[in-house]
Amino acid sequence: MENININNVDLIISAVAKEQYPVHDLKEIAMCGRSNVGKSSFINSILSRNNIARVSSKPGKTKTINFFNIDNKKVLVDIPGYGYAKVSKNIREKLYDMIVEYFINSKNLACVFHLLDSRHKPSEEDIMMNEFLNYYKIPFYVILTKTDKISKNELSKNQKKIENLLDLSFNLGIISYSIISKKNKNFILDKIINI
User: Fold this and answer.
1) Phi and psi of 47, rounded to 5°?
2) In what side-by-side order are the strands of the sheet with 27-33?
3) Does the record carry GTP-binding as a key word (predicted)?
């Protein structure tokens, strides 16, 4: 395992266009998901920080692509959440374009962590994102969030439904996570470190 201090994290830049992406030779691991999937909480929990990624009671707050340097070894990329109905169509389209532009143009993208709410079947937007990742042959993990809110039995059933609905051609694994119990935290960190 690579020696990495996961607590040494700095925001490099918040970008809205490819011209602003930071220039470096580190592997990027991108975090994406619906705007209410708990992405900011997941990032903060994994990195043992309270507010490296801004958590809001209102979904859809992240409107930029945020690049975080982890100990000069990896770059974690926080992608704006998609599918938030309460923002205007114009803003939704701009965010979608921003996400697509990053996935297509990043020269350093090594892997995507696609976050899905473990309590529900994937939304139309989740399936579109899944299709996009496979179409562009981007390796990805599926992270099932909010697993503390359902029973083990429900989680198992829901995971099977998710597996049946998604294209797992470029999937590297499906990992469940709870910010309460932090079960699988070290496993996820191991994946980030060794990508």
Assistant:
1) -90, 5
2) 9-15, 65-70, 74-78, 27-33, 109-117, 140-145, 171-176
3) yes
**pTM for the full predicted model:** 0.91
Maximum C-alpha span of the chain: 47
Sign (positive/negative) of CA torsion 11, 66, 18, 144?
positive
Closest to 62 measured CA to CA, from 51, 46, 49: 51
d(CA 180, CA 145): 11
Tokens found for residue 193: 């470190």
Secondary-structure breakdown of the chain: helix, strand, coil percentages, each rounded to the nearest 5 = 35, 25, 40
β partners of residue 114: 32, 142
* Encoded tokens for 58: 């209102």
Rg (CA), the chain: 16
Task: State both tokens at 10.
Answer: 């700095």
Residue of 91, 34, 40, 33 whose CA lies nearest to 68 = 40
